[in-house]
Automatic annotation (TrEMBL):
Gene source species: Ohtaekwangia koreensis
GO molecular function terms noted in the UniProt entry: 3-oxoacyl-[acyl-carrier-protein] synthase activity; beta-ketoacyl-acyl-carrier-protein synthase III activity
The keyword Lipid biosynthesis is assigned to this record: yes
Quaternary context: Homodimer.
The name this protein goes by in its record: Beta-ketoacyl-[acyl-carrier-protein] synthase III
Pathway terms, separated by semicolons: Lipid metabolism; fatty acid biosynthesis
Entry annotation: catalytic residues: C116, H256, N286
Keywords: Acyltransferase, Cytoplasm, Fatty acid biosynthesis, Fatty acid metabolism, Lipid biosynthesis, Lipid metabolism, Multifunctional enzyme, Transferase
Amino acid sequence: MTKIRAAITGVGGYVPDYILTNQELETMVETSDEWITSRTGIKERRILKGENQGVSVLGIAAVNNMLAKTKIDPKEIDCVIFATVTADMTFPATANIVATAVGAVNAFSFDMGAACSGFIYALTTGASFIQSGMYKKVVVIGGDKMSAIMDYTDRSTCIIFGDGAGCVLLEPTTEDVGVIDAELKSDGAGETYLHMKAGGSRMPASQESIDKRLHYVYQEGSAVFKFAVTNMADVAAQITARNNLTPENIAWLVPHQANKRIIDATAHRVGITEDKVMMNIERYGNTTGGTIPLLLWDYEKQLKKGDNLLLAAFGGGFTWGAVYLKWAYNS
Ligand SMILES: CC(C)(COP(=O)(O)OP(=O)(O)OC[C@H]1O[C@@H](n2cnc3c(N)ncnc32)[C@H](O)[C@@H]1OP(=O)(O)O)[C@@H](O)C(=O)NCCC(=O)NCCS
């Protein structure tokens, strides 16, 4: 029987207009453009401003961008998965809101919460639906409105994150392209170092939780950094080795954009030179679920059919993983 693989057949993306620069952050917390640039590689990030603007706004714009390019009928979409930790509401799923807004009226849809690894978790899930033969068109979105859960008095965290979303369309193929391998990992011990304490069922919102600023991201940056450097590089090396990938036959490393130093360490570990590393952290910062699809969106025109792509991510949970795929089209 011919093997069915899930190929990425379209990409969409969206970042909001407002640009929060390092210079503006200098007026908000005690920091400097020099410190932020040298420690993280970030120069600016996008912020979704305005009342009643949830992450669905970003997801809808990203999917509409993909629909305009691929020209598929949204009624043909079978499933929409949204990887996010900043859902519009605890329920319903933001994926439901996006699916209806873009006209994917025949799709079932759900959110996936794996923080910065959310997109590769959702991509692997969506690819499995296609490979099983069950579904023919799956839209995988990754995106976050991190500004909604950012404490803009905490200089070690607020300088990193931004808002944005990207998406891909997955369709079946019998050609030698598509998602080939994935390795996904998690470790609940990571809760200590990166979490948001209040607003969930363990600590519902109260006057005290608001007064203590517990509805924002809590991060022990240097501890997260150490776990991220080791685990993202390890999993990338693991998937590289078992698929006989080499620095020569990998066309692009597509790394989660958390910190340029973590990206450099991952590239170094698999022997990939900087010209083959997708990077847009300087413009968008860390958009959590959004980083990897936003890279594919930014670099789409440079990608060629048959290119070997190595996706790698690390995030809250802890969660981490890597995906090996062959690009399926020329733009
Ligand atoms: C957050 C991060 C940039 C901090 O960089 P770092 O080199 O680890 O810095 P540290 O936290 O050790 O802090 C070093 C010093 O810089 C200071 N500092 C922290 N943020 C600062 C800022 N924005 N501006 C100036 N100084 C800052 C600290 O207070 C500390 O000062 P001290 O030595 O006087 O106590 C880095 O740890 C990081 O990127 N971690 C991973 C984050 C991540 O990827 N998270 C998302 C999950 S994927």
